[in-house]
Amino acid sequence: KPLREMSEAAKQIAGGDFEKRVRAKGHDEVSQLADSLNNMAESLDQQERGRREFISNISHDLRSPLTSIRGFVQAIKDGAASPAKIDRYLDIVLDETDRLSKLANDIVDLSQAEARQLAIEKSIFDINRLIRDTAMLFETQIIQKELNFGLSFADNQNIVSADHEKIRRVIYNLLDNAIKFTLEGGTVITETSVKDGRVWVTVRDNGVGISTEDQKHIFDRFYKADSSRGLDKRGNGLGLSIVREFTRVHGSTVTLISAPGKGSAFTFALEAGSGG
User: Fold this and answer.
1) For labelling alongside 225, which of 15, 73, 145, 272 has CA 20 to 30 A away?
2) Using the 8-state DSSP alphabet, how is residue 199 labeled?
3) What SS3 state is found at 131?
4) Count of other CB atoms within 10 angstroms of residue 73
5) DSSP 3-state assignment of 182?
6) Contact 147/221 with Cβ under 8 angstroms?
7) CB-CB neighbours of 81 under 10 Å
8) How far are the Cα atoms of 3, 161, 223, 260 from residue 64, in angstroms, in the given order?
9) CA 128 – CA 111 distance, rounded (Å)
10) In whole angstroms, how far apart are CA 236 and each of 6, 231, 240?
11) Can you list the pairs that 53-59 forms with residues at least 24 positions away whose Cβ atoms lie under 8 Å?
């Protein structure tokens, strides 16, 4: 009877009913098989919930810019926009298309990373220079928010062996995150240190911080902490997922130290290159 129940349950699970479970009693082989079947069903159920949530989130993030693009293009086409407004409308359309392009690229990169298909092209470069160049992209936001922005490097040069473009994306996302969630007049510092043949990079701020509960999910795709929702109007919730996967393919793990109201510090390490 237990085997017949498991056979029927397996058919239902195969048909898409991932909430189906079987009763497992005792400690014999049949009970162990029932436990394995239930564990498999639970895993499939979680994956299905994740898939549905992914579709829901991606639909929302696609709908918003597409609606904006359609509205402005329609206004131009119908002649409802004055000549003075057309250029501004086109700038908004370009901005939204860039947003869609970034979203598409992030999704592709995450899918490849999670499928262990993300290739890296290592080169030898100065991580300090990369941090400086990336930080310059945020000059306008830093000035607007009157942030105390600092760079603290272990040496004049800290040479690493890594994929330049992927680490640029990691640093960009961490700086974007720190600046976005640090209030006006706050502090954002990026620093490097050297230990055990590795160069450690830390981006820290004294911003809103992240609760212990949110820290459990902060690297999940599309996740946005409750404390960040009012400050992050345009983010798609993929930035820190990209950070996690891009550091992982470099054999590193990004760590987080944070507390509500006390800011956050994200740290990862890279292999030191020649001269590092």
Assistant:
1) 145
2) E
3) helix
4) 14
5) coil
6) no
7) 18
8) 50, 39, 17, 30
9) 29
10) 42, 13, 10
11) 53/222, 54/221, 54/222, 57/221, 57/222, 57/237, 58/103, 58/107, 58/222
Do 244 and 254 touch, CB atoms closer than 8 A? yes
Q: Which two tokens stand for residue 19?
A: 């909430």
Place of tokens 């911080």: 209
Report how far residue 165's alpha carbon sits from residue 190's, in angstroms, rounded to the nearest whole number. 18
Average pLDDT over all residues of the chain: 83
Task: Flag residues of the chain having pLDDT under 50.
Answer: 227, 229-230, 276
Q: Which residue is associated with the tokens 């696609």? A: 62
Q: What is the pLDDT of residues 36-86, one digit of tens each?
A: 888 888 888 777 776 676 676 667 667 777 888 888 898 888 888 788 888
Strands 159-163 vs 187-195: parallel, antiparallel or unpaired? unpaired
- Decide: 192 and 131 in contact? Cβ < 8 Å: yes
Distance CA 42, CA 22 (A): 11
- Long-range contacts at 39-47 (CB < 8 A, ≥ 24 apart): 40/13, 41/9, 41/13, 44/13, 44/18, 45/18, 45/19
